[in-house]
Specification:
heterodimer; A: about 325 residues; mainly alpha; two-stranded antiparallel sheet; B: about 290 residues; about 0% strand; elongated
Chain lengths: ~325, ~290
């Protein structure tokens, strides 16, 4: 069996694992929702349940099927979910798919740009720190990274918001438009600067420290010492020989950081009133809106699984030494 | 092979490479900071009574001064004093949640590792599945089910953080099982339970304790994030997340000091905890001295 086919089977096997995981996660969420003392029908009526006729309440209960067994309800939800119908959000009075559709684009925009920036920062600063190991540059970079790792991302966000949006007034501090302006590419770009920067600097420390650590380890490897002995200039040794081998494990870190990235985006969106899924998530949790909350959680899990799969496949493609039976 | 360690040549005296610092340099500052914080958290409430409902609008919204080192909030409460209480709540939540998740994780990991086979595989798949759900989202779901409260926050943290402990304990048990002293115990007639409780668990205990201390900052962070989103402790309770959440409103009118203090305190405490456990970890397994985390 060729290696390429082996990687293909690896991907298929991991996909086959992802499906039951998503089923289990969604079913567990469903059971959790059922176990909560909140009755969606009472929730729907609110105080009006006092005046509502018992026939109407009973009618609604039958229509929604809230008194059927959990498994039957889950099966009904699943049948509709596969066709793209995720039910209705109680808190926002909209179909869940519409709620997510309206907001997902904004979140993807924020996350993708922020993640890319964090990667660039991580590579750049990590290489610099390793290159000048023990210098003041290295110390300030690693020290800053440890401090940023410990700082809650929303606190950093508030600090940045205060300095750059409220005091210096350089950049807008929230939303995607100013006042009643229509949404435009330029306006969004300007509004994006602060949230993207905060997301990037909150994620970058892991990448910086990882790159630095791996580079330092690769400095002791034979091929790097060999390159050095051949008299190649420093920058060529670092960028061409040391960095190349230490980048491989970086790929797995990309997959591993995805859950944290989603968490970070949730908090950054809240600080900067970004119109993504964060607001909807918090609203859904406060209003016990499980249709929306469950769909969002299952979706995030799917993203994490696919991200991990991609990272592993890329790693296997890039490094022929990686075993494929994992 | 240490002689072969190559470092790019320094260009000037200013950037001359310094000898690698011993991990001990962080022992003293971390211990002092953590000592001061713990002492403040334990002792201050004995002498100064903080009435959470106490409001003095005459001194509301004051910037830092000699009387109020970190200023006062919009209801005239001293920010520093409130921080001490907030940290007390947050640290309690963190420690309790970390201990619960460590116990749960150890139980699962030890069972999976010592029973092995299909049981192990299924259990670890479950761990993998739960690990795929972003922690904060799972925490939010759990809080939504139980409604925001102190116990809901602790449960949500414990339920999302036991995975690390389970993985560590399982891999430790798996490697310990191949060691001669376990074989000796089995040959000596020890039962499965005896091997587990007398030989395996005592040997994983240091690793578990280490993982638990490293989990405390993470749990505190989780509590803070939930409270910040309005899904954590009740709004009137002083917790780091609630304080930062409250301070958001004042920030818009220029009250920067209300969010500065809780955040700084949290950062310093987190660094101290991870610094101390880093020193401990280096003692525990010197081979892994250079690690990603502190």
């Amino acid at each position: 069996m060729t290696r390429r086919r082996a990687i293909g089977t690896l991907a298929l096997r991991r996909l086959a694992f992802a499906v039951p995981v998503l089923l289990v996660v969604s079913f567990a969420l469903f059971v959790l929702a059922k176990a909560s003392p909140f009755d969606p029908v009472e929730r729907y009526f609110g105080v009006r349940i006092m005046g509502a006729s018992p026939e109407r309440v009973a009618q609604l209960r039958a229509n929604w099927g809230v008194d059927e067994p959990v498994v039957a309800q889950y099966w009904a939800w699943l049948r509709h979910a596969v066709t793209g119908d995720l039910g209705d959000s109680l808190s926002l009075q909209q179909p869940v798919s519409a709620v997510i559709g309206d907001r997902l684009g904004w979140t993807v925009l924020l996350v993708s740009v922020g993640f890319t920036l964090a990667l660039v920062l991580g590579l750049l600063l990590g290489t610099l720190a390793a290159w000048r190991q023990g210098s003041w540059l290295d110390r300030s970079i690693t020290g800053g990274c440890y401090a940023l790792e410990a700082a809650p991302v929303f606190w950093v966000g508030l600090a940045v918001l205060y300095v750059f949006a409220l005091q210096l007034r350089w950049l807008p501090g929230g939303g995607v438009t100013t006042g009643s302006e229509p949404v435009s590419a330029g306006g969004v770009a300007v509004h994006m600067v602060l949230p993207v920067a905060v997301l990037a600097i909150s994620q970058a420390p892991w990448f910086v420290l990882f790159v630095r650590q791996n580079l330092l380890e690769s400095f002791t490897q034979d091929h790097v010492i060999g390159a050095r002995a051949r008299g190649l200039p420093d920058h060529l040794v670092v960028s061409g020989h040391a960095l190349r081998t230490s980048l491989l494990p970086f790929l797995t870190l990309l997959g591993a950081r995805l859950p944290e990235l989603i968490t970070g985006a949730l908090l950054v969106e809240t600080v900067f009133s970004w119109p993504g899924i964060a607001r909807a998530t918090v609203e859904a949790a406060l209003n016990v809106d499980f249709a929306l909350l469950g769909a969002l959680t299952v979706m995030a899990t799917g993203v994490v699984l696919v991200g991990n799969l991609l990272a592993d496949v890329l790693y296997a493609l890039a490094d022929p030494r990686v075993a494929l039976d994992g | 092979m240490a002689d072969l360690t190559w470092r790019p040549a320094p260009r000037s005296r200013l950037t001359a490479a310094s000898p690698p610092r011993s991990p001990r340099w962080r022992l003293l500052p971390s211990a002092v900071v953590l000592g001061v914080v713990v002492l403040a958290v334990l002792v201050v409430p004995l002498f100064v009574e903080l009435n959470e409902q106490y409001v003095d609008l005459a001194i509301a919204n004051q910037p830092p001064s000699a009387a109020h080192l970190f200023g006062t909030d919009e209801l005239g409460r001293d920010v520093l004093l409130r921080c001490v209480y907030a940290l007390r709540v947050s640290l309690t939540v963190g420690v309790v949640a970390a201990v619960i998740s460590a116990v749960a994780g150890t139980a699962v990991g030890a069972l999976a590792g010592s029973i092995g086979g299909w049981f192990d595989r299924i259990l670890m798949r479950v761990v993998d599945a739960i690990a795929s759900v972003p922690h904060l989202l799972l925490g939010i779901v759990i809080v939504a089910v139980l409604r925001p409260s102190l116990s809901a926050v602790i449960i949500s943290i414990a339920l999302t953080h036991w995975l690390t402990a389970a993985r560590i304990v399982r891999s430790e048990v798996l490697s310990l099982r191949t060691r001669p002293f376990i074989d000796a115990a089995i040959v000596g007639g020890a039962s499965r339970t005896q091997v587990l409780t007398r030989h395996l668990l005592p040997n994983v205990a240091p690793q578990v304790l280490l993982a638990t201390t490293l989990m405390v900052p993470h749990a505190v962070w989780h509590e803070t994030a939930l409270s910040f989103l309005g899904l954590g402790l009740p709004p009137h309770a002083a917790s780091v997340g609630n304080m930062i959440n409250d301070a958001q409103r004042s920030l818009l009118v220029g009250g920067w000091w209300m969010s500065l203090a809780p955040g700084l305190l949290l950062i310093i405490t987190t660094l101290a905890v991870s610094g101390l456990s880093g020193v401990w970890r280096d003692r525990l397994n010197p081979k892994r001295r250079t690690e990603l985390t502190w």
